[in-house]
Structure formats: C-alpha cells, structure tokens
Sequence to fold (884 residues):
Amino acid sequence: MNKKEKVIEPQNIKLNMEFRAPKGTRDLLPEDKIAKNYVASELQKAFEIFGFNPIETPALEEYETATVKFAAGEGSDVMNEIFTLEDRAGRKLALRYEMTFPLARVIASNPQLPKPFKRYAMGPVWRNGPIKLGRYREFWQCDVDTVGIKNMYADVEILSLIDYIFKKFGINIIIKLNNRKLLNGIMEDLSIPKDLVDKALITIDKLDKIGKEEVIKELKEKGLNEGISKKIINSFETKDLNEVKVKSNLGKEGIKELKEVIDLCSKLNLKNIIFDISLVRGLGYYTGTIFEAFAKDSSIKSSIAGGGRWDKMIQMYGQLKDEVPAVGVAFGLDVIIDVLKEKGVKFDKTVCNLYIIPIKTKEESMKILQRLRLESIKCDMDMNDRSISKNLEYANQLGIKYVLIVGKKELEENKFTLRNMETGIEEKLKIEEIIKKFKVEK
Amino acid sequence: MNKKEKVIEPQNIKLNMEFRAPKGTRDLLPEDKIAKNYVASELQKAFEIFGFNPIETPALEEYETATVKFAAGEGSDVMNEIFTLEDRAGRKLALRYEMTFPLARVIASNPQLPKPFKRYAMGPVWRNGPIKLGRYREFWQCDVDTVGIKNMYADVEILSLIDYIFKKFGINIIIKLNNRKLLNGIMEDLSIPKDLVDKALITIDKLDKIGKEEVIKELKEKGLNEGISKKIINSFETKDLNEVKVKSNLGKEGIKELKEVIDLCSKLNLKNIIFDISLVRGLGYYTGTIFEAFAKDSSIKSSIAGGGRWDKMIQMYGQLKDEVPAVGVAFGLDVIIDVLKEKGVKFDKTVCNLYIIPIKTKEESMKILQRLRLESIKCDMDMNDRSISKNLEYANQLGIKYVLIVGKKELEENKFTLRNMETGIEEKLKIEEIIKKFKVEK
Fold:
C-alpha cells in the first residue's frame, strides 16, 4: 500500500475532529489504573500462594484455533463476537476472547509439561459484541486453572482460593455450586433431544431472573413443548441436593461429585457455598463442577468470579484418545474494583508521596530528589519554576500527601519544611529525618 | 454469519493438524513468564519511585488515530506494519504498534489533566512486519513520559531513571546522546531539501554499522549527489561536541540543549553518557534530545532503552495552537531479560516453594496446606495419590525447593520431614517451625 494514502496530513484534519478510544474501549487514567494494579497484584499474590505459575499467551490466535468446537461452545454468543484480522501473509487471525482455549492449546502442544500443570493468566480479551452499559469490547480476565487432576480436591482447591481472595479483599461472598453431569443427567431422564440440551440449559439459567412463565415461553421458542417444559422446571425447583432424584448414571455421578465437594469444603471450613440446581453457566465446554461467586449485600448483581471443570477441551486440541481433566476459575477484575468502591475503599490518586518545591534551588533540589529516590521514596519535584501557591495547587490536584519546600535558607540550615497536604501541619526536618519518615521496606 | 460455518467440528480436524501460537508470536511458559514478571515489576517500582503514574490505553485504536502524521512518522516502516481490523459497525481499527501516540491522544482529549503529567504504560504492541531472528509481531513495550516540561530537567530526569534502573539490575550501560535540532541544523547548513532530511538522517544512523562507502551509496539512492553526501558525512565525523560547528539557529539551540543536559548530568554524577552525533533514532516524531542505552561488555548489540523529546505530536492530536512539550523513554523488556540471562542471572522455574506429599493423609494434608497458605507461604500438594518417588520427581522437574512428607505417623507426632531438594538434607519439624522458616513478609 502507498504510504501517502495511509497518512493523514495535518492540513486535512477537520478542526473539530476528535481522537478518542474506540467504541467499547476505555482509557484508564492514573486513579483507575492504580486501583486496577492494586487488585491485579493482590490476585497475583494469592494465585502464587496457591502454587499457580504465570504463563502468557499471545493476544492473537490463529482463527482456526479460536473457533474449534469446545473452544467457546457452539451455542455461545461469543462465536459471533470474535474480532478477526489477517497477517501480511494472509493468515486469518483472531483476537482471543477468553483465556481457557489458549491454555488448552498450550497444554496440547507442550506434552513435555509435567502434570498437574497449574497456571494463572491475566490480561485483556476482546469481544466484538453490542455495547451495553458496563460491557466493554476490551476487558481483562484473570484466570486460574489446574490441569491433570481428575478428583474433586482440585475443584475444592479452586473454591478455597476464591474464599481466600475475597477474605483478603474484605468482601463477603456466596458461591453457587452445581454440576453439569447432574444437569445433563436430568435432561437425559426427561429424554430431551441432545441438540436441545445446551439451549434448554441456557434458558434454565435465567429462572431466577425472568421467572417460570418466561422460561416456559423461551423453551417453547427453542422447540420444547409446554408439557416437557413444565417437567424441566419441576426438576429445577428444589434447593436441597438430598431431594434431587435422578435415574441416569451421569446424573448420579454428578450428585456424587457435588457431595464430595461439599463434604471436603465443610472439612476445610469453607462457608457460604450453596447448591443451586439452576446454575448453568453460559459456556458450552463445562463438564462437571460449576460455580459462580457473588458479593453479598451489594447492589452489584453480576458474578465476581466463576468457573468449573472442562475435562474435554484439551483432548480436542491434542487429538488425544483420553480426556485431560481441568478445572478453573476466572476473576472479574472490573467487578471486584466496583464492589470495593461500593464498600467505600479509597484508592490512591497518585503513586507519588512527596513533592519538592524548589525556590531558586533547582539544581540542589534535583540532588535531594535523587537522594530520596535512592532510598526508594516515591517522589517528584517542580521543574517548571512555578510559584509556591501554584505548586501547592498542583500537589493538591494530584493528591500528593506531602510537599517539601527547598529554599536557599533551608539548604544552609539543612532543614526543610515538610507540609502534610491533608492536615496542613508543617514540620522542619533534616533530609535524614525525612528519609526515616518515608522509608519504604526494600 | 452462520454459526455452523464458523465452528470446526471435531471430525473435520485432520489428525495431524497442529494448533500453535500464530507466526511471530510466542507462548511464555512459567520460567519465561516468571522472568518477565520480575523485570516488569522492577521497572514498575522504579517508575513509581520517579513519580510516574500508571495509565492504560486500549490495544485497539481507531485507524485514523493510529495513522495521523507524527504518530509514527511518515518515513517509518511502522506505517506499513499496522494490523488492521473492523468492529461490528464497520469502523476501521488498528492494533497499537507503540505507546507514544496513544498517550498523545489521551493528553489531547483530556485537557483537564494537571500538567506536568508523568505516566508509565506497560503492555503488548503489535507490528505486522517480516519475521526476523528475535523480532516478534507481538512484543511488550514499557514507556515512561513526562508531558509539560520544556526545559532540560525533564530530559535529565529520564536519563537519571535509566541510570537508576540499570544499576538496580546490575547492568553496566552506556547512553548515546544527541539532539534532533542539531541534526536538522546541520542539514539546514548543508541546504539539504526538507523532504530528504529525514531520509538522509535514517541513513546516517547506520554510519557505525555499514561504514562510509555504503552510506554514500545509500544517500545517492535517496537522491543526494556524492559531493553533498561527503559533506554530510564530514559533518558527522566528530566525537566532540565542542568541535561541532553549526550556523543555523536551530542547530545552535540543539547544541545549547545538549550542553545543558550534559552539564546537569555531570552535577548529578550520572556517568557513561556520551555525545554521539550519528545517533538519529528511526521514528520521525522526535524534536530535541534523543538517546539510546546499550549494555556494555555484552554480545547483545541492540539498544536496551531509547527515547527522546517529542514536542509536536500532542499539538497535532489536540489541534492546538502551541506545542505541548514531552520527553520519554521506552525500555525493551525482552532485551533486558536477554542481557540478565547472559550475565548468568538465574530466574526461578516455579513460584512454588514447598510441595506436600501426603501418604494416605490427603484430607489432613489439605488442612496443613490451607494453614501454610494463610501464612502466605507459596505451596502446593499432591492430589493424585502418587508414590513418594513420583512426587519427588515431579517437584524436581518443576524446580520446587522443598517437599514436606505427611504420613499418619508424622501427623500423630506433629513432626514432618522437610526435604531440601537441592541439598537432599532432611529435617523433622513442627508446623509452627515450618511456618517460621518460610514466613514471608506481609
């Protein structure tokens, strides 16, 4: 392509043309990014304490990799929301829309990796979906998965991680728990045709939200008659696992798995985990345990974390004879921040703790700045020769907690005025005393 | 689009089809990602100590934003390497290919931001370029910029940051320093036509690499005759700033700026900064100070950090009457890791420090695991009922430093065998003693 065609010359820009982040994406300015970094770093710490190792896969995936059956599930909207592009050789690529299928690809193409393989991955994913309130086309996912453990200890470890993290954040949660084997078993008992099972389950998932009548209506639209729809709904009315009756072997296995999970959780004193037979989860690749965590006593109703078992996807990517068991959870970074803000948690507006105001002492102030930084103190100084009042206004706007005034007299005395911007209290301190006051652990 | 068309059915996958990361991209497995996280986190710490605040802009940009003149520079190859895509409404988008123009967009569209505005940004960028050794289509950039300071203190602060960071990493560097005003001034003196200036400079940049003869040849190809080419080269032969003679006012300003930078660096005891008149830097948007840092005594010849002043780009995005001064640097995450590895720095293979081997004590071991994790100890356990020898092999493969053997007898005695996997030394310890040994600071 001709370069000239691709470059917009300055004179061709309309004066009222505005450059902005693309529709459905956001710029995070310092205050928001500081909050995000805080939550991301707390998640990362917890993941590592639980023995999960970091990996990173590209944002770009081959289109065929991204669209294999079981990747996002055939019935999922996600398949219609993939951003596609081409490389210079004409290969069709996709922006990843979640983090699970890239893990399946990595496991399948690296058979040398010792199992169990426990990993976390954090980063942006993209969905070219319709814009709704609070829904973005670029957003972050924080995923944790254990590959290679078939028994329920791995599932419980994930639930334990969820419990651990939200306790750290001081967020009270409830975790809704269910099992896909049980759900499929119930559908088997009712002789629902296989190709309608997933569609019917996605409707059942809405039972709490839209009510019985609407669910029957939607099931009808999907091709199930009223009689069978009512039977389906009846099967989803209980709240007690002990009351659930299922004839199919698959369903029985689901109940057994659920009981194992609940039993072990109780032994580990993990609370607030409740069986919810109408929990389905949208993605088609789940095969066993499924769960979703919600903040209690919060106006934020969307789930704050969710996941489950996905024992069949890796087999798919590896064209393997046997299943490769896997279970994991995705944490919603943005939702967590929203809940913390709702709880009144205040995040820093700036990383900077100390701002030097030089009064005709720029060189000397720069040396003081250099010295404080060598002590790992997060600090900055005015380099624009502004007045004290302008500088105080700036420090205030940024939310910097302390300013240090450095004039000629102060230099001679080696004592400087440190002003607490919140209280207005001033102290006269030596550099060594300032260092002691601000010293952060190294 | 029809869903059926987009989904690859399992039976249609050829048995030898392999799923891999797209050409020019990489999967980072734990060992590599741990190294990357370490370097990224050290950079982040340093950036914050220097008072730079984090921001995040989307990976997606409107195509018009990404291709405005001054974004990457008209003469740059980058303009032909932009990955393009479309959103569902048919808007043309681009994957960001660097982090400077998104900052210019943010500044221009957020006039409320107090100046100076100091930010850092870390994350992937994409270039749909030819694949060469060590060149990727998706790679990370770590950028730091100060917006709103016209004088050379801001430039020196960036040089001081570079010095600080590489001292922390234990990497000896030299920083080559030059100034675009000086370069343009020299070209003015030689009456080089304006449209050839940038092209000629990009060739001059190769003087060290390809030698005089080749440079003259390339200049000729670009439309400059031999006489003028030799004159250009003569102007670039000196190594001493005091010997540089320039008539144009722009050039004189460049020399003045260089002298200010060098003088202040010397006062701050910043060493290993050398004037290099043939340093140009590829991007067209630089307007003043430019610099590149290289690892000394290393086989790695590519620059490890580089940047400069770019006073005109924000004006462009904001359609402003006046320039908005800006200066910054980009750190090469991958190069830093390569240099550290070359120096023999060993990164952890796993985040996990302790691996519990239960011998018919899974439930009790899970409780111990839970207790250790509450103490922030990074640990894990076997959940697959493997033999001790299999588990030792696994811990060894992963590079886990300690294993803890938990049998029935150990539980009764409340004393467990802690084995150092590197030395083979075993101790019998109580849980409290293990916690004390591993306790990490909170």
About this structure: Residues 30-342 of chain B form a domain with the BirA Bifunctional Protein; domain 2 fold (CATH 3.30.930.10).
